[in-house]
Specification:
about 270 residues; Metallo-beta-lactamase, Chain A; seven-stranded mixed beta sheet; 10 helices; binds zinc ion
């Protein structure tokens, strides 16, 4: 199984160094996109990957920085060579994809593309779901992230190797330690308090409080990611969903407080054979 980051950034801030969240998984002939942050197609091209070859899309959750690029996937290709994709996602993925297909149909100026769009299918993968996607066994658990939004972490297993992707989550050992138990690679989101301090510079007191509460209440510190990696006994921790003002060495330093295995800070184009 090969994992390639087609976006390692986070949220609404424009980041010249990182695209929003998207991961490409390849296993044999299977090619799966896990989240489609806007702009992911350029990042795929940077890595020599071909969007037309993707058969399946898996969403962790429907925040725009993880999902909105699916509109690009449906709209930007003038001639589709691949078969229509199947989209797997949490609650409301069906209505999200119907809206995305609506955008795409406005642009669809020939029968071939209209037929391709008609062939897109959606499978809701609710918490506890277990299934095979492209020859990869996928297990899903719900993680705490944002109000009203169902957010899923996934464990991918193929050829005796395993990868866990948390999506966006607060520190959630009860669900993430069992999910990541003994995984070869854990891809966990992470932020540092020093980044928050830099982000808060120049804000009003209420702005600072809103920033701190918003990030701390919906995301994980890098040290928390390290704790999950340690308690689950994973081989390698990859930190992702990186905010623009983060410093890689601070992310590693925080995670290292808890985890003494290999720690990698994801970057766009990073590709790992698992
Ligand atoms: Zn999110």
């Amino acid at each position: 199984m090969r994992i390639t980051f087609c976006g390692s950034g986070a949220g609404a801030a424009v980041n010249p160094r990182r695209g929003a969240s998207s991961i490409h998984l390849a296993h044999g002939d299977a090619q799966v996109l896990v989240d489609t942050g806007p702009g992911f197609m350029e990042r795929m091209a940077d890595s020599g990957l071909e969007p037309d070859s993707v058969q399946d899309v898996v969403f962790s959750h429907l925040h725009f920085d993880h999902a909105m690029g699916v509109v690009e996937l449906f709209t930007r290709l003038i001639v589709r060579r691949g078969a229509p994709v199947t989209v797997y996602g949490p609650r409301d993925t069906d209505s999200y994809i119907e809206a995305a297909l609506g955008f795409a149909r406005v642009n669809a100026t020939n029968e071939f593309i209209r037929n391709w769009l008609d062939g897109v299918s959606v499978v809701l993968t609710r918490p506890g779901d277990e299934r095979e996607i492209g020859g990869i066994d996928v297990r899903s658990v719900e993680v705490p992230h944002a109000p009203y939004l169902e957010c899923l972490a996934r464990r991918f297993e193929a050829g005796g190797r395993s990868l866990v992707y948390t999506g966006d989550t607060t520190y959630a050992p009860d669900v993430l330690v069992p999910l990541a138990d003994g995984a070869d690679v854990l891809v966990h989101e992470g932020f540092t308090e020093s980044c928050l301090t830099r982000m808060a510079e120049g804000l009003s007191e209420s702005g600072r409080q809103g920033l701190f509460k918003g990030v701390r209440g919906t995301h994980s510190r890098a040290e928390s990611a390290g704790q999950i990696a340690r308690d689950a006994g994973v081989g390698t921790l990859v930190l992702t969903h990186i905010m623009p003002l983060e410093r890689d060495w601070e992310l590693v330093e925080e995670a290292r407080r808890a985890f003494d295995g290999t720690i990698v800070v994801a970057s766009d184009g990073l590709s790992l054979e698992i």
